[in-house]
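Notebook entry, structure prediction.
Reason for the run: the old model in the group folder had no record of what sequence produced it. Starting over properly, with the input documented here first.
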Amino acid sequence: MWHPAILINNFKEGDHTGSHEGDHTGSPLLVGGPAWHYNDAMRHVYLIGLPGCGKTTLGALAAKALGLPFYDMDEYLEEKTGRTIAELFAYGGEAAFREIESEALKDIAKNRPGIVATGGGTPILPRNAPILREGLVIFIDRPPEEIAKTVDW
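New structure, fully documented this time:
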C-alpha cells in the first residue's frame, strides 16, 4: 500500500486556502504547503481524490502558479477517444474504461513534467501505482457532502 506525499483537506470550491497535513496555517493550497518546492528532477505531480474533489481546479491553478504544464486525464481521454467519460463507461463498462485510463496515465507520464489531475479511479488500480510513485502524489480530501453541493452529476 502506498500513501500520498501530501494531503489537502477541507478544500472548498472557490476557496484556495485550507489546511495541509502537518500545516494548519491556512496557507495557499497551490504548492502543497510552505516547505514544499517543485523539483525539476520530479517526473510529475499527481493529484488524486474523489470525482469532483477539485483535482482539475487545483491542478490548473497550481500549474499556472508554478509555470508547469497541466494535464487533465478526463480531458485527455475525451480528446483521444472522441467520446465523453460517460460514453466510454457506457460503451465498454468500467473494466474497459479503467484499461483506457491506465493507458492514458502511461501516455501522460511520458510528457514534460507537470501537474496531472488523475481520473477518480486511477489510484485504485495496482498497475498504476508504479507510475504514480515516480512523481509526487497529492490526495485532495474533500468531504463528499461538500462535493455534492458543487457538482452537477
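Summary: Residues 85-109 form the longest helix (25 residues).
The old model has been moved to the deprecated folder.
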